[in-house]
Amino acid sequence: MKAGSGGKPRIGLALGGGGARGLAHIAVLEALDDMGLRPALITGTSIGAVIGAAYAAGLSGANLRHHVLSLAADRPDVMAKLLKARVGRLTDLFAGKFNNPITIDSEIFLDHFWPQAVPDRFEDLEIPFMAIATDFTGRREALFQSGPLAPAVAASMAIPGLIRPVVAEGMLLVDGGAVNPLPYNHLFGKADIIIAVDVTGGPVEDSTRRPTAFQLMFGAAQIMAGSITAQMLKARAPDILLKPPVEGFRVLDFFKAAQIIEAAAPIVTAMRHELEQRLVSA
User: Fold this and answer.
1) DSSP per residue, the chain
2) What's the pLDDT score for residue 206?
3) Pairing state of beta strands 41-45 and 11-15?
4) What CA–CA distance (Å, rounded) separates 118 from 131?
5) Which pLDDT belongs to residue 91?
6) What's the distance, Cα to Cα, between the start and end of the chain in Å?
7) CA-based diameter of the chain, in Å?
8) Which stretches in the chain have pLDDT values below 70?
9) Which of 161, 183, 190, 282 is deepest in the core (most CB within 10 A)?
């Protein structure tokens, strides 16, 4: 196994998409901090890009936990910020526009909800970071690792039907989960130990109620993301694959932040053990 300039193996961290379930990423970041381990490179899709960029900016896992729990504790403030980030009018539904009455502008969303310490450009991050989005017209992956940070992360999280597409670098960009929900493949050759955190889960099962239109939309997206990830794993798996048990949470359960983070405790313990073994043998 190769090692970085400090003699320690280089750790690559991939944070996957999954809506509110991705808050479980924070528990993984806290564990890495506690072990004194700092990733050499981070990749992220959707919520993984949102959290990954903030961590790459220098915020600790504990900082991110505090930030997220503070937001979740003030529901009226969150709703007010979401209203400010909303775009579109009812007439837009019938005018062939991208907007609808509940669509969110993701760049405004990030401006309201990201920690202030997150810089404007990739080049100003403390850890190299890549964000994955989808080029809707080109039907392919769009990888961002330099230039303005907010538009790239906003594009990565632009879930069709909920968040307005982002136009950048001549592309119409939507959620990166449509092409690469767990972007650990971009870490091969750049890191010695690759950790991937898969928070895709699946639709919340409830046989007593029919799913709403949004639940169907998100559930179908999660099924697609799970299928893409399964095929990627067959081709080549990361060194450490973490799957927090977050199936019981819905994609928009952001007000259950504390429970989601705590749900990751078992896989964090397993990660610590495996990482310690790999570092000893390196």
Assistant:
1) ----TTSSPPEEEEE---GGGGGGHHHHHHHHHHTT---SEEEEETHHHHHHHHHHTT--HHHHHHHHHHHHT-HHHHHHHHHHHB---GGGGGTT-S--TT-B-HHHHHHHHS-TT--SBGGG-SS-EEEEEEETTTTEEEEE-SSBHHHHHHHHT--TTTB--EEETTEEEEEGGGT-SS-GGGGTTT-SEEEEE-----PPP-TTSPPPHHHHHHHHHHHHHHHHHHHHHHH---SEEE----TTS-TT-GGGHHHHHHHTHHHHHHHHHHHHHHHHH-
2) 60
3) parallel
4) 14
5) 42
6) 6
7) 62
8) 1-6, 88-102, 202-208, 282
9) 183
> Radius of gyration over alpha carbons of the chain, in Å?
18
Q: What are phi and psi of 278, to 5 degrees?
A: -65, -35
Query: Which residue carries 């968040």 as its tokens?
Result: 163
Check residue 141 and give its pLDDT.
98
Where residue 161 falls (left for φ over 0; alpha for ψ -120 to 50; beta otherwise) is: left
Task: Sort residue 147 into left (φ over 0), alpha (ψ -120 to 50) or beta.
Answer: left
List the structure tokens of 149: 């940070």
How far is Cα 126 from Cα 99, in angstroms, rounded to an integer?
35
pLDDT tens-place string over residues 62-88: 999 999 999 999 999 998 998 888 875
CB 232 within 8 A of CB 185: yes
Q: How far apart (Å, rounded) are the C-alpha atoms in residues 49 and 86?
A: 21
pLDDT given for residue 93 in this prediction? 37
Handedness of CA 96, 98, 102, 108 (dihedral sign): negative
pLDDT of residue 94: 39
C-alpha span between 63 and 142 (Å, rounded) = 29
